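Sequence in, structure out.
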Amino acid sequence: MGDTFFKTIYQELHIIGEKSFTPREVDVISCVLSGKGEKAIAVILSISSRGVESHTRNIRQKIGCTGRDGIIEFVEKMHKTDHFRHLYQYLLTQSNFIKVLKKIASVIKKEELTCTIFCEKEEERETSFSRKIKQHLKISGIEGIIEKKESMLDPEKILIFVGSIEGLLTFKKKITNPINKTILALTVLKKPQEDSPFKEYVFFEKNENYYLSFFQLLKKLLPTFSLEKFIEEFKSLSVDQKSLPLISKGASIEKNSLFNQKNFTRRKKLVWSAAILLFSSLLIFTLFWIFTPNVKNKSLSINPLYKSSGKKALSWNAPFMPARYIKRNESVEAIWKKFMNPVNTMVGIFGLGGVGKTFLAMHCFHDCKQPYDFKAWFNAESPS
């Protein structure tokens, strides 16, 4: 299933919005969308940080953006987010699989284990499946040699036969040297019946989890080693492939997908609704605060030297007054009492920095105890 998925997803994401991307660039984009940095991406993809940097730079050049946010915005605009996130789950599972294989290799490093890989059909000897088996065996600390000729098979080495049951039966009849070691049949065809003499062999079916099947193969190759803890560790770290549906070309993720498009759209609508509600509340509060007239304190007399036209005062550069400002009514009263003296045309507010002098002046500006035709606010700070 793994190879089928990767082939399908790379075909689907090869061209996005008339932009062409390589499979490795597609992998990097999927990790970027999942919030991974360059070092984390390098670990997941088993490449160098410099390689990640190079791929990221190529992606930005193709898209025409300058950063990670531009990549994310491009993918969202093309409605491919689900595909990339789905791919990321597979890449993460693959990365965890490699980590566990390396741990197994560290346990058996003192053993010099080799085996022979023989394919039923000659054209299959260099297939991706055979090469993948050999690669993963090497990571596990086991040397796998792909042999092309039946006559060259070593009877003392474990033989991994890649093919069908029928092909294995034919192969057994043809070989001249008896194979003393266990023959492990690997197939991508139909699994045998329970009463079949081949039921103990390892089978890789198309719809089965490749990684778990490979662990079964390792258990056959390493009968004296306990691998259960490694298998359980892998299961705890990874998403089961069988729980992730395949993506057909030109189609979106299926209904059971972890990153369902419908759920994503629903969450997006909820976020927008909450944002609109918050903005509306702020707007209503602001309008109410601006147009609601201040309540005048009638206990204070008006400076007899001041004559107002009676019109509402015009304001210039009015400062914004926080809604949660703690009013200091006694200080405000004291300031306005100073203004009641006809001699006083200016009142100063003095104190240590941070005690609230500016907020006190703002309070007096917005809550005037005398009528004025014009009010202005000048910031004391230097523009430089």
